[in-house]
Amino acid sequence: MKVFYFTATGNSLDIAKRFGGELYSIPKVLKGNQFHFEDEKIGLVFPCYGFAAPNIVREFIEKVTLKSPYIFVIMTYGNKLAGGVNWLVRFAKQNSIDIHYADGLLMIDNYLPIFDINKQKLKEKNTERNLSRLLNDVNQGKRFIRKKTFSDSLLTKGVQYFYKKNPNFNTDKDFSVGAECNQCGTCVKVCPRDNIKLNNKPVYGGNCEFCLACINLCPQKAIRLKKESNPNARFRNENITLKEIIAANE
Ligand SMILES: Cc1cc2nc3c(=O)[nH]c(=O)nc-3n(C[C@H](O)[C@H](O)[C@H](O)COP(=O)(O)O)c2cc1C
After folding, report:
1. Spans of all domains in the chain
2. Which positions ≥6 away from 94 have C-beta within 8 Å?
3. Atom of ligand 1 nearest to the CA of 84
4. In this structure, what are the phi and psi dihedrals at residue 205, rounded to the nearest 5 degrees?
5. Nearest partner of 115 among 187, 215, 218, 204, judged by Cα
6. Domain 172-249 carries which CATH code?
7. Helix, strand or coil, per DSSP, at residue 137
8. What is the pLDDT of residues 239-248, one digit of tens each?
9. pLDDT of residue 116
10. How would CATH label the architecture of 2-163?
11. How far apart are CA 35 and CA 104, in angstroms?
């Protein structure tokens, strides 16, 4: 089994690892030169962004060919998935990838503009219980696509339309670097887009995934958002090391 993943703060890597199999980082695959993969089972694990998939995952789906009798998708999310899974299944189909199993998994929400990580950590999300169901299903090769309601579809369509019409929403122009920065370079290493250079302090190049890895993982908490819920609260999944995220995204 091959499991492809994208992660900013470790949730999706934590889940990808639990499925076992060979792990492939999506940003690394995109930087390489092999785009055809085959296996008896193939998995995709990544976070939900804006009730749909991150741009880097879309690029991956557009670029690769996947040959397998069983392809599963797990979208980690922190609050509301809306029609995210269904959006992905359709997008994959348009790119000649048939998904046989697709579901979401509720975890801590790392979207700092809205959520206070300290409060998120206190919420009961039943992640382990839900994960064991997903693991069982995939082990048994169950076929299932998460159901969506009419309002789920509307939410996904609405937010995706908003993103399209507002290209300046959620960009690296929203970030500022404080005097606490000691030029350790962690931000450069965790950026999946190679969008950050160190020039006394981090300088952003305008090709931002808005995954917030640089902000959440800065050891000095020196990088901030113009608008955020709690500038002192930052997140990394407790089962995943900074080294693993660097290895995935560098
Ligand atoms: C730009 C952005 C958009 C997000 N959009 C959603 C969303 O639409 N719904 C949701 O429930 N969580 C959303 N989240 C939260 C993440 O999906 C969630 O925290 C995920 O588990 C993070 O995975 P990671 O640790 O592997 O990066 C968003 C996070 C970011 C950074």
Report:
1. 2-163, 172-249
2. none
3. 8
4. -100, 0
5. 215
6. 3.30.70.20
7. helix
8. 999 999 999 9
9. 97
10. 3-Layer(aba) Sandwich (3.40)
11. 26
